[in-house]
From TrEMBL:
It is found in: Cytoplasm; Nucleus. Its EC number is 5.3.1.23. Catalyzes the interconversion of methylthioribose-1-phosphate (MTR-1-P) into methylthioribulose-1-phosphate (MTRu-1-P). InterPro entries: IF-2B-related (IPR000649), IF-M1Pi (IPR005251), IF_2B-like_C (IPR042529), Initiation_fac_2B_a/b/d (IPR011559), M1Pi_N (IPR027363), NagB/RpiA_transferase-like (IPR037171). It comes from Acaulospora morrowiae. This is Methylthioribose-1-phosphate isomerase. Pfam families: IF-2B (PF01008).
Length: 417
């Protein structure tokens, strides 16, 4: 079974989110019944990844409204807030606005959250103008949130297909049936999306066609989405893979015998190089500059130096045409705790945490371990901007965008015409 970070059922209304802070050691789903709980899940990074946070925000509003409707119909006495929202479309509209305003403050960089909120607001206004009752408007909002979940899965499969075909075509020019090895960064798989994944979707596609030799994932310091989540997904889905530290990428690219080849005599000598670095995106500007997890920029530089493809894979909605270049993208700065502490989950036994501190009764009292000295100054930007010049192609569900020969930037607006 594939991993899923979002479990939603329409009837009875239920939303459960996999607490990713506990992965890979514990699989715990937490129930979300209100907008505030959805906000908390996103803010506390129990759910993360650009597509997933947009969907969770929308579904938390949907489920909150569905449960209010249920309360209005089935429960006595009625909650006064529920009574007013369900009996007055005007009150419902005010509630939706307030909820969306709150939800969009949970994470600033990924565009998906803002687009999801914009979509839900447009629907609310349109149906309100048309004179629909609150319960009818709620049904439309639920339809839209469910569609976002379903569309994202479909889009990811198409991203995987386009990206897989693109890379296969590129390597076939060099050598027929060449096997492909790639490096990926952060987490872009089932856990960061509604399923299948974006950059990880391309890796999945190559694997399903029998064309993936090996996938390397970086740890992705400081928050370790790579070692906690991507390594876990690759292992779970039995995709041949190896975990490396972020600082090992250039060394891997310059190695003539990468580790995956040492035990693989069947592989021809033409396969001994990494073909591409594939990453996701949180926001892409009109010219193709891409905001993605911190560390992406340096990967693009090393890809260029080593003459390999640097691919950005993202749903089309990640292209923000209102933004001219990467300079206009707000970069989220996160707590210094992510840098100074190595966090673990208290699981005893082989493969679990081994450096926990226990009190006299054997209870674990420290869950996080500080590495640098107290008082050290720390900077923790969560994302960086990769200039379009360093990006070979942007793969979306609509197809692959490449730059014109000799041109440094993408013309994504033009490509749409
Ligand atoms: C699939 S979104 C693109 C990712 O690479 C990405 O940057 C991401 O997962 C965001 O990380 P986050 O853990 O939400 O801060």
């Amino acid at each position: 079974m594939t991993l899923s970070s979002i479990l939603y059922t329409r009837a009875p209304p239920s939303l459960k989110i996999l607490n990713q802070l506990l992965l890979p050691h514990q699989t715990t789903y937490e129930s979300v019944t209100t907008v505030q709980q959805g906000y908390d899940q996103i803010k506390q990074m129990k759910v993360r990844g650009a597509p997933a946070i947009g969907i969770v925000a929308s579904l938390s509003l949907a489920v909150d409204l569905q449960l209010k409707l249920h309360n209005f119909t089935d429960i006595n006495p009625k909650d006064p807030e529920v009574l007013s929202i369900i009996s007055s479309p005007q009150e419902l509209k005010a509630f939706v606005r307030k909820s969306l305003d709150h939800l969009i403050t949970s994470r600033p960089t990924a565009v998906n959250l803002f687009l999801a909120s914009k979509k839900l607001w447009e629907i609310t206004c349109k149906e309100f103008e048309e004179g629909l009752e609150s319960r009818e408007i709620i049904e439309k909002l639920v339809d839209a949130a469910v569609k976002m979940l379903e569309d994202d899965l479909e889009d990811n499969k198409n991203i995987g297909k386009h990206g897989g075909e693109f890379l296969i075509k590129k390597v076939e020019d060099e050598h027929e049936n060449k096997m492909i090895s790639v490096i990926t960064h952060c987490n872009t798989g089932s856990l960061a999306t509604s399923g299948y994944g974006t950059a990880l979707g391309i890796i999945r596609d190559l694997h399903s066609r029998g064309r993936l030799l090996h996938a390397y994932c970086t740890e992705t310091r400081p928050y370790n989405q790579g070692s906690r989540l991507t390594a876990y997904e690759l292992l779970h889905d039995k995709i041949p893979s190896t975990l490396i530290c972020d600082s090992m990428v250039s060394s891997l690219l310059s190695s003539s015998t990468p580790p995956h080849l040492k035990s693989s005599l069947a592989v021809s000598a033409t396969s001994n190089k990494i073909t591409a670095i594939i990453v996701g995106a949180d926001r892409i500007s009109r010219n193709g500059d891409t905001a993605n997890k911190i560390g992406t920029y340096q990967l693009a530089i090393t890809a260029k130096y080593h003459g390999i493809f640097f691919i950005v894979a993202a749903p089309f909605m990640s292209i923000d045409l209102t933004i001219k270049s990467g300079k206009d993208i707000i970069i989220e700065e996160r707590s210094e705790d992510e840098v100074v502490f190595v966090s673990g989950v208290p699981v005893i036994g082989e493969g679990g945490r081994y450096n926990e501190v226990k009190d006299e009764s054997g209870k674990i009292i420290i869950d996080k371990v500080r590495v640098p000295p107290r008082g050290v100054k720390v900077w923790n930007p969560s994302f960086d901007i990769t200039p379009a010049e360093l990006i070979s192609a942007i793969v979306t569900e609509k197809g692959v965008f490449e730059k014109s020969e000799g041109v440094k930037e993408f013309n994504l607006e033009k490509s749409l015409e």
